[in-house]
Amino acid sequence: MRIGIIGPMEEEVSLLQAAFTIKEEQVIGGRTYLVGSYHDHEVVLVKSGIGKVCAATAACVLVNTFKVDAVVNSGCAGSISDQLKIGDIVLSTKLAYQDFDLTIFGYQRGQVPSYEQYFEADHALVAKAEAVAAKLKSEGKFKTPGTSALQIVTGTVLTGDQFISQKAQSLAMKEFFHEAQMVEMEGAAVAQVCTDFKVPCLVIRSASDTASGESPEDFNEFVQLAADNSATLLLALIDAL
Ligand code: ADE
Fold first, then answer.
1. How far apart are CA 98 and CA 186, in angstroms?
2. Residue 7: count of CB within 10 angstroms of its CB
3. Is the CB of 187 under 6 A from ligand 1?
4. Intra-chain end-to-end CA distance of the chain, in Å
5. What is the Å distance from ligand 1's center to 24 Cα?
6. What single-letter DSSP state applies at residue 103?
């Protein structure tokens, strides 16, 4: 199986890059695609850059040039759930754009015409990731900033071209997307491309902040911890495929 992996920032690809055996590098559209292997699987890893267009372009190349069988987007996010703290992990079941709005024409918030409001992640990938995550958690493989037990949930991830740093923004989003757990800047774009090309996809995110007033400082402090939690899970998931 050939797995395409997208991490937006250096912190989100570093642990993966160190774990993979890289055989070849290809630069396409200014991004470097690292082609290699991890145990029994072929992998293609790309640092996409931040935001929806960067992520969508990277996903398109992974699918159409590298012919990957699945795409996983790994990294950090802001928690918009009162229950989820820094370090906690969400496995996307559904993804939507929090900043796409044609409600004035009768569409649902986030809904792109000719699509549903939510893009779906691949159910089998979510189930496998859940099982792997539970095992890693029991082995104490994830990090948290404090002493509280790490939580792993499946749920809704929201995407937009904004870093969310005010509680009012998080609360406004939850009015339209009641069950949303985390917000980030790439996942739904990856899922939309994967929907177009009928390629299974999964978004794994660990919270670097709580999408509130402390977010810029928390993000800087915990981006690596969160990115590593997500990457640790992804490596074990690849092993389980
Ligand atoms: N990625 C990590 N934290 C985020 C936040 N607060 N808003 C958007 N994307 C994020």
1. 11
2. 28
3. no
4. 8
5. 31
6. G
